[in-house]
Amino acid sequence: MVALDGTIVAIANPAIQKDLGASLADVQWITNGYLLALAVALITAGKLGDRFGHRQTFLIGITGFAAASGAIGLSDSVATVVTFRVIQGLFGALLMPAALGLLRATFPAEKLNMAIGIWGAVIGASTAAGPIVGGLLVEHVNWQSVFFINVPVGLVALVLGLLILVDHRAENAAKSFDIPGIVLLSGAMFSLIWALIKAPAWGWGDPTTLIFLAAAVVGFIVFAIWESRVREPLIPLGLFRSVPLSAGTILMVLMAFAFLGGLFFVTFYLQNVHGMSPVESGLHLLPLTGMMIVASPITGALITKFGPRIVLVTGMVLTAVAMLGMSTLDGNSGTGVMSVWFSLLGLGLAPVMVGATDVIVGNAPLEHAGVAGGLQQAAMQVGGSLGTAVLGAVMAARVENDLPGNWKEAGLPPLPPGQSAQASEAVSVGIAPVTEQTPPAVVAKITDVAHDTFVSGMGLSFTVAGVVAVLAALIATLTKRGDNVQPGAGGGHI
Fold it and tell me: Which tens digits make up the pLDDT trace of 49-86?
């Protein structure tokens, strides 16, 4: 449900905007409110699982997420939708670390990699289903159905969870809460994610952006100082003495930077340059997500046999090759060429998603499995936000630099004063800046210029993502099999 809602809502946003009379800022909050709540609460939610048991946390998360989804479907104002999206994000934060904590506590070492591999396949399938299911529901039912779908899924998961899940708790789990640590970490994470979300609009050099980034840095420093002194910290800093765990966390950030940052442009490329519908673009991405679904369980078996290092390095090298290959796509690239690079990207990402998760969770002691799961998810959220913001800035800079020359070279009349910025903004997402009054012959020229300029910016962005993937491959050499993985099944108490 959490992975599905990460992609399905983007399809529903235009319908929500039209039905509720929302502004662009309102629609952005529908996505940003969910993302902020999820990112800020993940590690704290993992700690709740370590303290009270991952089974209870998981079941509460399922119930709250489904209830919030139903409330969104019943909402008749944007403010209500945003409010329940934030609540949905908070309950989603309970679900993700609890799921990994349950796997970590239940499966012995020789089966944990396969379990995480199957988990990765489910995440891949859900992510793939988002645009397709969302498009079909919005087109044939209504936007509310996008949220109502979580209610029956949540009910089934709740019933199965009550019947099947076993509560394994570590004997030496924390007995108290680090409230100041939660406040400091939440404030620092909010400042960081908010700055990354708003930087493309505000500008990287804008004082407001710099203030939020500075607040994040100060917040993390004060948090680290506090954690080193408190008796039962939110995140025991000793976790990061494990080089593999630290490397796995950095690897997850870099992987999400390259993947989610690059994927941001692929949807614009498919829909605005190639003119596909949301459902068609989702189908064109099936080679990517399909390969992730197939490769994730296989990756689990390979990690069990060879350890994570070789698998992770190979995965990031394949990801780098795919990113550099995607940098060669142009406005005339066919489905076959796109499918080759999308398939290779999925084949590269699956080992990293599974392997980095295994390294982070497997190198943490059992009593900190929830915190480790939260750390893995938080790293992915930070990496995705950072990738979208940085690669968005790369795209904007390339468009701003190339568009005037390309415009002039096509023999188009100069843009009126004040419209250059609006034109650049439209071209940055692959849209031709034309009006209903623009003559058809001029529309064709402007469209060619806009698409060529966008593709040039996308190519540079994918090149940067490819370089980041190469750096991630080097980081992957520092990983190794978890030192703290022991059979969990049968341990603890119910």
Answer: 888 888 999 999 999 999 999 999 998 888 899 899 99
Rg (CA), the chain: 23
Mean local confidence (pLDDT), 92-115 = 84
* DSSP conformation class of 143: T
Reply yes or no on whether the pLDDT at 217 is more than 90.
yes
Task: Read off the tokens for 79.
Answer: 């403010």
Is residue 69 within 8 Å of 88, Cβ to Cβ?
yes
What are the DSSP E strand ranges found in 228-342?
A: none
Q: What is the mean pLDDT of the chain?
A: 84
Could you please report the per-residue DSSP string of 227-252? HTTSSS-SS-GGGGG-HHHHHHHHHH
How many degrees, rounded to 5, is the angle at CA 115 between CA 286 and CA 351?
A: 50
Inform me whether the pLDDT recorded for 492 exceeds 50: no
Evaluate if residue 490 carries a pLDDT over 70.
no
Could you tell me the maximum CA-CA distance found in the chain, to the nearest angstrom?
Answer: 75
What number of CA atoms fall less than 13 Å from residue 375's CA on the CB side? 28
Q: What is the DSSP code (8-state) at residue 483?
A: S
Q: Is the pLDDT of residue 494 over 50?
A: no
Task: Say what the pLDDT of residue 393 is.
Answer: 84
Question: How far lies 345's CA from each of 179, 298, 398, in Å?
Answer: 41, 16, 24
User: Could you tell me which residues come within 8 angstroms of residue 409 by beta carbon, excluding any fewer than 6 positions away?
Assistant: none
Task: Count how many Cα atoms sit within 13 Å of the Cα of residue 9 in the half-sphere of its side chain.
Answer: 25
Q: For residue 188, what are its two tokens? A: 């620092």
Q: Concatenate the DSSP letters of all residues of 401-412 into one string.
A: HHHHHHHHHTTP
Rounded Cα–Cα distance for residues 326 and 322 (Å): 6
Tally of CB atoms within 10 A around 157: 20
Is the distance from CB of 133 to CB of 12 less than 8 angstroms? no
Q: Confidence band (pLDDT; 50, 70, 90) for 17?
A: confident
Say if CB 299 and CB 442 are below 8 A apart.
Answer: no
